[in-house]
Design goal:
Largest sheet: none
Number of helices: 9
Radius of gyration: 20 Å
Distance between the termini: 16 Å
Strand content: under 5%
């Protein structure tokens, strides 16, 4: 991301690019000024080109090894807490907190069937829109409104994804609603105070 104000990845201010998405998420309410900037923050994650099958084959052993290495760290880092004459560094405590969560994410990739990979870009797109919707409307929607799925499609297209319909988003939004997307929510919440 560029540090220059008003510039996003070499492009003009994203307000116009994501204004329609923000309006759909606001669902009749005025869209807050922070929302297009928050959506722009995640643009590169949604628009990133999917990896090829050849790249996936090359990355699979790396991911498998990272998954195993995390198991090793999670198992043996607690030794720091028992060392005499040495207090456990704060960084170790942080690692012990965060490594199991990283391992959980890697487990999904490492243990997933090798033939059909999930469309992570669509899942991420739905999670961003779902969390933005929840912030704007003060809670997680139940049932999921069609307007939210429409916002997913609009965000997808604004990020360079292909055309489609709101039904294409039913499964991804349902997954987003059932998943803890705390990091996305935290980043979007930070934009509300800027």
């Amino acid at each position: 991301m560029s540090a220059q104000p008003g510039v996003f990845l070499g492009q003009p201010n994203p307000v116009g690019r994501f204004a329609k998405v923000a309006a759909l998420i606001a669902n009749g309410k005025p869209a807050p000024d922070w929302l297009p900037r928050g959506l722009a923050h995640f643009h590169s994650f949604v628009s990133e080109a999917p990896i090829t099958t050849q790249e996936a084959k090359r990355l699979r052993p790396i991911i498998d090894r990272m998954h195993g290495d995390l198991d090793y760290l999670i198992k043996f880092l607690p030794l720091f807490q028992r060392l005499p004459l040495l207090s456990c560094p704060d960084d170790v405590a942080v690692a012990l907190d965060v490594l199991p969560r990283i391992r959980k994410v890697l487990a999904v990739i490492a243990l997933s069937p090798r033939r059909k990979r999930p469309n992570v870009r669509r899942q991420f797109c739905a999670a961003v829109v779902f969390e933005a919707w929840s912030l704007i409307h003060g809670g997680r929607p139940s049932p999921i409104p069609d307007r939210l799925r429409e916002a997913c499609q609009e965000y997808w297209e604004a990020c360079g994804g292909g055309a489609g319909g709101i039904e294409d988003w039913r499964r991804h939004v349902k997954e987003a609603a059932a998943t803890e997307n705390g990091l996305i929510r935290k980043v979007l919440s930070a934009y509300t105070t800027r």
